[in-house]
Amino acid sequence: MTMAALTAACTTSALQASTLTGDYLALPTYSIAAGYDVSFGFVNSIYPDLDPTYVIDEPGLMSFDGDGNATLSMSVFNRDNGIDGFAIEMTFDQNYAISPAFKDVFGRFDEPSNITLFNLAAGTLTGIGGFAGLTMDVGAFPDPDGAATQVGGGTGNGSANGHNENFGMAVWFEVLSFEGADICAYCIGNPAFDNLIGEQVDIVIDLEPAPVPLPAGGVLAL
Fold first, then answer.
1. DSSP conformation class of 144
2. Among the listed ranges 2-11, 15-24, 108-117, which one has the minimum average pLDDT value?
3. Looking at 98-102, 138-142, 199-203, which range is the least confident one?
C-alpha cells in the first residue's frame, strides 16, 4: 500500500467509525529532534529506573478491523541494556468519554485531515527482565482533556507521533493499577514503585503494512 493510500485511509472524521483496516507492523519511531529511535517512555518521572528510553526490538503488530476498533501487541526494551522492558497489549475503539482532540508535540491543534483518532479502551504492561513480576493496567490519560490515540502521518500541519512524518501511532496513557512490586527485582525497596498510579506513559511508533502471507504452494494469486 502506498503512503498516499495510507493517508487516504485515515481521512475519516474522528467522530465517525474509522475505515482503516488490516495488519500493520509496529516499528520504532526515529525521532528527528532526538536523533535516535524511540518507542515508549515514562513521562516526567523523577526516578532513574523509569527514565530510560525503551524501543521495540522485534516488530510488533497493530490491527484494525475497519469498524473503529484496533489492537496493539508489542514488546519494548531499555535502549541501553536491551534486557529490561515491558510486553504491551492494548485495545482501542472510538467510544469516547469526552470529545476527542488531536495533540501536537508542541501543543493542541485542530485535527489534521491525515489523522484518525481512537480511544484507548484497555491496556496491560507486563514486566520483562528486571521488571519481571510487575504488571500494570493502563488507561487513556485524562490531561489534556480529550487528547486521543492518533493514527496517521505525512507532511502538513501535523503528524501522529510528532517525531517524524512517517505513518504511525501515538498514545498517551496513565497507570490505573499495578501489582507485583513486592517481587519485581527493580521494585523491591525502590520508592519509584511505591505508587505507580497516575504515572504518565507515552507510546510513539511507526506503522508499516504487514506482509501478506503466501498461500499454500508459495504463489500469490493476483
1. S
2. 2-11
3. 98-102
Q: Which residue has better confidence, 29 or 143? A: 29
Residue 50: predicted pLDDT: 65
Phi-psi region of 213 (alpha: psi -120 to 50; beta: other; left: phi over 0): beta
Amino acid at 175: V
Average pLDDT value for residue range 105-122: 79
Instruction: For residue 57, give the amino acid letter.
Output: D
Contacts of residue 174, Cβ cutoff 8 Å, sequence gap at least 6: 138, 139, 140, 141, 142, 197, 198, 199, 200, 201
Residue 13 is placed in which grid cell?
472524521
Q: Which residue, among 203, 111, 208, has the nearest Cα to 167 in the 3D structure?
A: 208
Name residue 71's beta-bridge partners: 63, 91
Distance, in Å, from the CA atom of 149 to the CA atom of 183, rounded to the nearest integer, reads 32
Cell of 171: 498514545
Quote the CA–CA distance of 30 and 129 in Å, as a whole number: 24
Q: Which residue has the cell 517512555?
A: 41
Cell numbers that stand for 66 in this block: 475497519
Complete DSSP assignment for 190-218: -GGGS--TT-EEEEEEEEEEPPPPPPTTS
